[in-house]
Design a protein that fits this description.
The protein is α+β, with helices and mostly antiparallel strands. It is built from ten helices and nine strands. The strands form two sheets. It has a six-stranded antiparallel sheet with strand order 1-7-4-9-3-2. The protein has one domain (22-258): Jelly Rolls (Sandwich). Helix content is 28%, strand content 15%. The protein binds 2-oxoglutaric acid. 2-oxoglutaric acid binds next to β3 and β9. The site of 2-oxoglutaric acid has 10 residues, from β3 and β9.
Length: 294
Amino acid sequence: MTEATDILFPGAPQATYPSVPAHLRLAVESIERDGWAVLPGQIPASGCAAMRAAVAGLLAAETAEIGGAENMKRIGDEGVSRSPFLRDDRFVGPAALPDVLAVARHFLGAVVQLNLQRIVVNVPGLSHGAGVWHRDHSYQDFTTSRPVSLTALAMLDGSRPENGAPSLLPGSHRFEKFPTFEYARSRATRALCAPGDVLLIDSAIFHRTEPNPGPESRHTVVTIYTVPLIRQNVDYPKLLAGRWADDPVLGPLMGYATAMPASDLEYRRTKLDRGRRVARDRSVTPASTPAKDA
Ligand SMILES: O=C(O)CCC(=O)C(=O)O
């Protein structure tokens, strides 16, 4: 909507986002310029409650699998569940939210790949591995002209100072170096979300989880999406063994279409089958994503 004061110097170029659904344009522009945006109301309260209730069981199973709590602590994975969607279908929901995928496709291209999913539990009184300023792909300190990775943080309990809402450093996705702490302290902002909102960030923005003063733990389902040039955190096509391979949304997302060919011959055969295109061709038609208010 244009207001009376919206006057630009004659001829000055201006950004427009015609290919983005109208209700997502401000979020897309905010991610581009600031590195973050909140998509409100993505998960209903019942879904948040069901996922929250599943977390203890997931953590217990994963802790037993790795040989106990001491080992989780040793690898910095206390309060972290990994790939919950592999054990519990309810976590497929936050990985495949139509609005999130629409924004991801705008930035990353038609074929968006799931890099990882994890649950982060911010427990009152406990420090967390994500409590230091970090980018989501560790040790990758280059910047890119547009995002190559997006992180969706589904806030099951909402996020506010009272439960350790994460801090963000707006614009830091555009700079290789972390700024001085003086600058960071003066510009950092907290991501405030209602339960069921998704905080969507350029994975290169510096952010950190903040101490939770309690009394309740805060649960975040973190899903990372990348261009398919970046390898997945674990081999989802192998772990899924064909599940969802033919699903028009989940198949490409899980990485079936972009898994590493075993040989040049396999690469060539796949290319023949696809009529010469490789899977990450930006002209590949994405699976339809229903626009929220279309
Ligand atoms: O929800 C949060 O506190 C953010 C978690 C986080 O920064 C991460 O998983 O990288």
